[in-house]
Amino acid sequence: MEALLVNYVEKSLEQYMRRNAVFLCERLYAEFPSEVNLQLLARCYLNNNQPHSAYYILKGMQMAQSRYLFAIACLEMDLFCEAEAALLPVKDLCAEVPNGAAVQYLLGIIYRDTDRKNKSIEHFRKTLSIDPMFWAAYEQLCMLGEAEEAAVCFGDATVPCVQEHYLGNASSCLQIADTDHSWDSSQRFGLEYLSRSDLKQREGNNIRVMCENNHGGPSLTGAVRQRKTSCCSTSFLSTPSPVPTQLSDVAPPPLVRNIHLRQSEDSLRPNTQARGKFACDNESAQIRGSLFFDSGLRRSARLAVGHRSLNTSQGSENKAKSLHASTKLSSETCSSTFCQGKLMETYEVAVSEFGATSSSLSSTTDVKSIQHEIENTKLSSFISDSATIKSGISNTMKLLRTLGEGYRHLCMFRCKEALNVYQKLSSKQYNTGWILSQVGKAYFELVDYLNADYAFSLARQISPYNLEEMDVYSTVLYHLKQDMKLKYLAQEMILVDRFAPQTWCAIGNCYSLQKDHESALKSFQRAVQLNSRFAYAHTLSGHEYVIMEDYGKGVECYQTSLHVDARHYNSWYGLGMIYLCQEKFEFAEHHFRQAYQINPLSSVIMYYLGTTLEALKRSEEALEMMEKAIVIDNKNPLPKYSKAKLLVTLGKLNEALEILEELKECTPRESCIYALMGEIYKRNKKYDKAMLHFGIALDLKPSIVDVAKIEAAIEKLIIPDEMEESL
């Protein structure tokens, strides 16, 4: 009953019939209460999204697997302290939790969420050292900004480690092959004994006893009886007839002691084993089955002769000699003619057996050659499979190396390098939702919103069910002011998963584009409720508070975002903008520099940092920062305009005028450009050109503040230079 229930529970879990698995496993544990069954019940609860149930039934359990499942339940409930205590080794039991790489990864997650960055990095690196294909650990290291080069983590040096994980130890596989050979020889030995016993049943009691003593009958009989008590397949052992074996595909049980010990060791082996070990065991089991099935087909009415033919001629001669010796001994001890007749009968049978064995030597050689050929085929196929698997592992590590290098560049905000790496991928890998989403995010960071829109659109076409990075796509559409596309995206994301934080970020961006900031803020806060560790939702909430000029709550949202992810540079930038608006320039500089250290290739951050330095009267530093911003993004007009202003401040009027002439060609409808050009012409005493440019600036309808400044500049055109300088 227990085995039946366990089988059906596992089957229900495989078929994702979670409720059925929970019900059957509860019945199982009620009938057979054990910690192993309790672990199975906890698995059912975890699969059925009931971590609290798994938490309560596993609390206080000491088995390693129980502690692992308990830690999983604790993480689902954000109980980090208890999860950490469960995963760490217990001193009293001296037992470490299984699943080494997974345990190290979970510890890294715990330390990351409890603000212990260094220990988190250490455990993520241990994860990769145990299992180089643990991509999630490398992903976390990239997010923390501490990832090594992908060539180190996924290099050729990691291939043997992955091969060992996949194949297991090669020596163990060869040992299994040797064990298979001993199993086959033991089968032949056991069947040979049964054939002899079948023959001896036709003889008298005295002859049967003597033959058993000469051939070690009692010891083998004891071994058979011991095996019968421990194995359920006793029909073949109790009956020497080959019919049951011929009618069944199941190999007969071996009759030697080491096989019995092997089975007992297997029964004590824990349930969780390496996948490579299972592969080796299954492979050897299939080969054993095929060998035994072939030998079963050979068994017929010539059972005794067929199996004796598997022995060597020397063994046959020894057997004949022993039978002859027993015949001679019995003739001396038995005085009756009946016994002598029986002995002569036995001698004739032995002679006939010897003749049959001698005549079948050629067939014996063929059988041995076939068996050696099968074993050689097995070993050669193992070697060829190993070479094929090694080649596959090398190709997989090469793929991970490319993906890892691109992802590392993107997390370090080296977006152009990331795009170049992703271009090296094959079309099969490049045209996938995840890669195209990463490409779109790279273009977004480069402020290339058109290419970002195109990449994200392709990702949506390929995998419309994938919501990863779709919050970034909604921000792209927000900046492009694509109202209809943003609405459509939000509606589709609702249909896919209305409980995903990315969905509510898209809805919030949609409301924000429509100037409905209250609804947008509610949507962003809903995303925070669904996932409190979704940093971008906190940042977007802060942006909405800034638009509504509620700077206090905006600061709180940005700080919460940084508590979740200290490398979320958007929040550092948002705090800098708040302090810049409040004219707290020292605080603004600090937060802009923090953002600049995280993302040193953002022209926007450089521009606002330069603006802050300009407000602090540090014109040289500000000019240097603006020049860096121009080099990073030559299409961004803001750093160029600020550079022109700084050059005017430093008295370099001609250089400033050249930059403004270039800007006028790129953005001809910006009034501030013409106003600054009018100021330069006025200083150069070219009043006609100055008045012309001031007039153009007024015609472009600037803001009220700029209108006042331009009108004041026009009034000063008639004032002499000496009076202007005195003013």
Automatic annotation (TrEMBL):
Chief location of this protein within or outside the cell: nucleus
Swiss-Prot/TrEMBL TPR repeat ranges: 101-134, 501-534, 569-602, 603-636, 671-704
GO biological process: anaphase-promoting complex-dependent catabolic process; cell division; metaphase/anaphase transition of mitotic cell cycle; protein ubiquitination
Keywords assigned: Cell cycle, Cell division, Mitosis, Nucleus, Repeat, TPR repeat
Domain of life: Eukaryota
SMART domains reported for this sequence: TPR
This protein's name: Cell division cycle protein 27 homolog B isoform X1
Gene: LOC107951913
